[in-house]
Amino acid sequence: MKIEGRALKYGDNINTDEIIPGVYLNITDGKELAKHCMEPIDKDFLRKVKQRNILVAGKNFGCGSSREHAPIALKGAGVSFIIAASFARIFFRNALNIGLPIVECREAAQEIRDNDRLIIDWVEGKIQNLAKKESYSVAPFPPFLQELIRQGGLEKYIKNRMRQK
């Protein structure tokens, strides 16, 4: 599966309190959470993400508390893929659990610039930077994760599996 878009670039150590402040944790709807996504560090995030749907970050993205609200807010805002040098492990798992594809690629995270046009083939394990005419290899998503993401996350995946039985 391929995702195409433009990069929206952030730095290192973006924590879950910056992705979605704790005051909004009583909200569970992704579209409502999106209104406050990245509020502490980028007041224009919601406007920017409409034009640049692939978030690119440095190391330790999603560090901090283990709230599932952070990837829900990003997905609700329109982020369709995240590339980072590294992720906090709990954020990594939470993102996949809600069907938000993410991948670690230090080289891509360092070299991609804000607004670069990208094509990501997460089945084949390729990131193409059309602006720089460069490509990066990453581990392809295993079939189970591909299906989990296609179905919109772990909860929907399990519900669909239960219906099949």
TrEMBL record:
Keyword Lyase on entry: yes
Domain Aconitase A/isopropylmalate dehydratase small subunit swivel intervals: 38-100
CDD domains: IPMI_Swivel (cd01577)
InterPro entries per record: Aconitase/3IPM_dehydase_swvl (IPR015928), AconitaseA/IPMdHydase_ssu_swvl (IPR000573), IPMI_Swivel (IPR033940), LeuD (IPR050075), LeuD_type2/HacB/DmdB (IPR011827)
Domain of life: Bacteria
One Pfam family it belongs to: Aconitase_C
Membrane spanning stretches: none
One annotated GO molecular function: hydro-lyase activity
Keyword entries, A-Z: Lyase
Family from the record: Belongs to the LeuD family. LeuD type 2 subfamily.
NCBIfam families assigned: LEUD_arch
Entry protein name: 3-isopropylmalate dehydratase small subunit
UniProt source species: Aerophobetes bacterium
